Fold:
Amino acid sequence: GTSGGVLAPLLMMGGALGGLESLVLPSEGTGFWALVSMGAILGGTMRSPFTGVIFMLELTHDVNMLLPLLVAVTMAHGFTVLFLRRSILTEKVARRGFHLSREYAVDPLEILFAKEVMRPNIVALPPTAPSALLVESLRVDPTKGPQRLFPVVDGSQRVLGVVTRVDLQKLVDDGGAGAGEKFPTIIRSTPTFAYPDEPLRVVVHRMAHSGLTRFPVVARSEGRELLGLIALDDLLQARSLNLDAERRRERVLRMRFPLPFSFFGRKSAVVTDAEEEDDGDQTEAQ
Structure:
């Protein structure tokens, strides 16, 4: 865990520092410099400037202290960001070897689910697949690439196991026409599953724990109905989907100012989406 029990010591240190400052700085009233120093110490060392301001205002209910506190905590926060690598809350965690950064962003693996990146159109094999079907399943689709894992399902699409492409290729090469009879011997009956409503972070952790990079995606019902397949490559789509969503969300607004001067009458570099569509329609008409 992180460091705890730092609030009271920081406030006491800030109050003591303010008491010393009041001996040399102009007098602004009882407790003025102590309060400012308490907010600065709290906001700077914890890297939470607004917390320091609000905390001090809640203690005193003196709104007149808002401006001095804002100036003090801003200077303290800037000083600690420039000269200290970490805050007092993360220093203990960093000393244990964990990587920490100051940026706060939403992890795409937390907001996307397995059903959004899984492959629904895959080849599934029955447990009594003939040799011809096994050979046909090994053909590579140029648009999708080779399928590395083949779920084995029964007539109700219930997953009975999985077969890797390496094992299936070896069986077809060695077994020939009798590969269908030996097919049940290479079925792995205890596969690891993924579920459609799971965040991708859970799937990634399961891959790291199991050492596998491909899971069949099944429904959570007792029937374990096959829904698709998810692989490590599919997780890269999470970042692509997130970037695409960011591009769509960042709408740029273009404005035109009909001013009399030609210099000011130039079109701005930003237009509305409707104007973009109108310009595109005019181009097509020409």
